[in-house]
Design a protein that fits this description.
Blueprint lengths: L1 E5 L3 E6 L6 E5 L3 E9 L2 E8 L7 E4 L7 H17 L15
Antiparallel strand pairs: 1-2, 2-3, 4-5, 5-6
């Protein structure tokens, strides 16, 4: 059991009982996000890019009725992030000297 967070740059999950057991997946590293059937019921499945380990992570969310809404939100945020990624550095282009 744990907590799942959706932010503007990543998905985060951490275990409630183990402080050192957590997952953080930046949108930049995501290959796909979808809902699949698992032996525990419907789950949110996140696949990372091969260069980032090619992990396939499954998350069971409660209540299950919110899965579709959460998936839609994640896909929307991923699309927005992909157009204008946040790298953690701001810069301003200056004109070249004559």
């Amino acid at each position: 059991l744990g907590q799942f967070f959706v932010t503007n740059v990543r998905l985060v999950w951490h275990a409630n009982l183990a402080q050192n057991f957590n997952v953080s997946v930046p949108y930049m590293q995501m290959k796909s996000v979808k809902i699949k059937d698992s032996k525990f019921g419907k789950a949110l499945v996140v696949e990372t890019q091969p260069k980032c380990g090619g992990y396939i992570l499954g998350f069971r969310l409660h209540p299950p009725e919110r899965l579709e809404a959460i998936l839609k939100e994640i896909l929307s945020l991923h699309k927005i992030f992909s157009v204008n990624p946040i790298f953690g550095v701001d810069f301003k282009e200056e004109e070249e000297a004559p």
